[in-house]
UniProtKB/TrEMBL annotation:
The lineage of its organism: Bacteria, Bacillati, Actinomycetota, Actinomycetes, Propionibacteriales. InterPro entries: AKR, Aldo-Keto_reductase, NAD(P)_OxRdtase_dom_sf, NADP_OxRdtase_dom. It comes from Nocardioides phosphati. The keyword Nucleus does not apply. This is Oxidoreductase. Keywords: Oxidoreductase. Residues 19-313 form the NADP-dependent oxidoreductase domain. Pfam families: Aldo_ket_red.
Length: 332
């Protein structure tokens, strides 16, 4: 299998695999952590040409970067390594808030480099916008990391159109990471036009609707037992009537997928990939078999009729529930 490549950003371009790998669930949130399985999944991803890896300091906290670092220790040159700062946590996991202060930017980067065991980060994101610190100050500090050779390219995550413009004026932004899938399309109104105007790539996280679009989640069970954070009130789309409504939409996708000889998740990923060559989604998994299934999306050819059918199958306003129970941390 040859995984195609895509270029994120024009002013500061980064060549990545068209499909990336989100590593968060290997350490936290989506069921029981699985370090061995995670490392095996990363190794298989690299063998398949899925070389764009995504982590963050807050995952674990801190342990996911260490896991990724161990997995790529002898294959660093193959990897486009992305990590994030800004969602500050203590070692016991407690949340300390969003931090975009310049001195913290430098300290967080140094700590991530040490945990990852690398001398540079290919793409360094501000995980969430600190609304108490001017974005110019935060990105100014991030630009200093580029000048120091610690970081190659800069990114933002869940930033508003206005914030993106202001940040890009300080230093070229290579990529915006934000949620985008058949279930989450609000960025199409303002954010996607702005990033395309400025020549910024898009890295969709949760391109499978946090697993809903795979068809593996039902009203009775999550994908991985009771430890799965998706079952908490923090994710309204997984609750009660909203879940039932959303699973009915998944059934619509399943019907289209069956006609294509594919899985619902593969078709959902193929839809994201079809939205532009400046898009590189990062579906997350800690299992080799799901990684391989996701990679199969690259072989799913969606025709114009297929794309129109998916638009009818999942109308933008048909998805029930906000994507987070508390949206206050999203820059709007």
């Amino acid at each position: 299998m040859t995984t195609p490549r895509r270029i994120l950003g024009t002013a500061s371009p980064l060549d990545v695999s068209a499909l990336g790998l989100g590593c968060m669930g290997m350490s936290e949130f989506y069921g029981t952590p699985d370090e061995a399985g995670g490392i095996a999944t990363i190794h298989r991803a690299l063998d398949l040409g899925v070389t764009f890896l995504d982590t963050a300091d807050m995952y674990g906290p801190f342990t996911n970067e260490q896991l990724v670092g161990r997995a790529i220790a002898d294959r660093r040159d193959e990897v486009q390594l992305a990590t994030k700062f800004g969602n500050q946590r203590a070692a016991d996991g407690s949340r300390l808030g969003i931090n975009g202060r310049p001195e913290y930017v430098h300290a967080a980067c140094d700590a991530s480099l040490e945990r990852l065991g690398v001398d540079h980060i290919d793409l360094y994101y501000q995980h969430r916008v600190d609304k108490t610190v001017p974005i110019e100050e935060t990105v100014g500090a991030m630009a200093e990391l580029v000048a120091a050779g610690k970081v190659r390219h800069l990114g933002l995550s869940e930033a508003s159109a206005e914030t993106i413009r202001r940040a890009h004026a300080v230093h070229p932004i290579t990529a915006l990471q934000t949620e985008y899938s058949l279930f989450t399309r609000d960025l199409e109104d303002e954010i996607l036009p702005v990033v395309r105007e400025l020549g910024i790539g898009l890295v969709p996280y949760s391109p499978l609707g946090r697993g809903l679009l795979t068809g593996a989640i039902t009203t009775e069970s999550g994908a991985d037992g009771t430890a799965d954070f998706r079952r908490s009130a923090y994710f309204p789309r997984f609750q009660g009537d909203a879940l039932a409504q959303n699973l009915s939409l998944v059934d619509n996708v399943r019907a289209i997928a069956e006609a294509k000889g594919a899985t619902p998740g593969q078709v959902a990923l193929a839809w994201v990939l079809a939205q532009g060559d400046d898009i590189a989604p990062i579906p997350g998994t800690k299992r080799v078999r799901y990684l391989e299934e996701n990679a199969g999306a690259l072989s799913v050819d969606l025709t114009a009729d297929d794309l129109a059918a998916l638009e009818r199958a999942v109308p933008r306003d048909a998805v029930a529930g906000d994507r987070y129970g508390d949206m206050s941390h999203i820059d709007a």
